[in-house]
């Protein structure tokens, strides 16, 4: 980035609202959707709001979670489902009150199949279903965290193809940067992960992209800026300033193609994503190839701001992940979907930050139509969780637990 890209020094004078803590340790994973956090920390945005952000790249989502809970990290680029898994005491960590400060991105995740499946003509959901049900050898698919977004996307898509994700295939956890290695070593038959790892797999002819997640849910929720609720309660001004810094950085990235390209170049560095810029930039810009000879400009590319539509911590987005926890038996009964979402989503703090930056704040709930034709709007989460043909609800006689 050039000196002309440096944000103006026009931060408001908060007076008594000055940050309680000025130096923050921020965790992130080597993924393209960490962009707004990386840009906020390295391009002068944090300083505008009285903060210095120290970035700490993590080796796995489990280590990121553990460091958030221990206080080694103040906040982090995080999986939506990780925050809610901890809130609900799922996934191997003690139940801890958590906070979602804002959404970081929408779109930009995919499901890839291995070269061996591709060579066998398994390049779509129907062919995969037939393969799974006609062969005794079980396929193994990787996702990134037991309660994470990628596990839920993978389960959702497999089920939509008539493949039960808990009975018909094996699911393993692999950190995002290690997906390529596992695919190349033929330890897995496919994976669901964020960019740039799906693009890199295609570039290296290690298989094909069978679906993007935005094809399943256009403008789906993905990563969030998360922390413990204790951090917010002890440092409310700091939390607001952090939201403003990352929100400002997100607005910068989405402003024009030049900013997106320069951000992709920054991310490619060894201290951040550590991947070729040729694997980051195209899908960063919505330019896709699937390894099957198809190329397209995606209507729902990876985006970080979109006038604030990306960043609102929607209650309905949070509730959707809880419905999937319930659907797959991670929760043995229906939680207070709306009540828990209201506790975790820091709507008031986000509204203050966005309003101070002149960014519109959309409604707390949003309505989305998913690939299978179902409409999700958060109005009846318990019924929605039970509505699917394939599920493993804990109180079902067929539960696979």
Automatic annotation (TrEMBL):
Pfam families: NMT1_2
CDD domains hit by this protein: PBP2_NrtA_CpmA_like (cd13553)
Source organism superkingdom: Bacteria
Major place of residence: membrane
Keywords: Cell inner membrane, Cell membrane, Membrane, Signal, Transport
Residue runs in coiled coils: none
Gene Ontology cellular-component terms listed: endomembrane system
Intracellular or extracellular location(s): Endomembrane system
Protein's recorded name: Nitrate/nitrite transport system substrate-binding protein
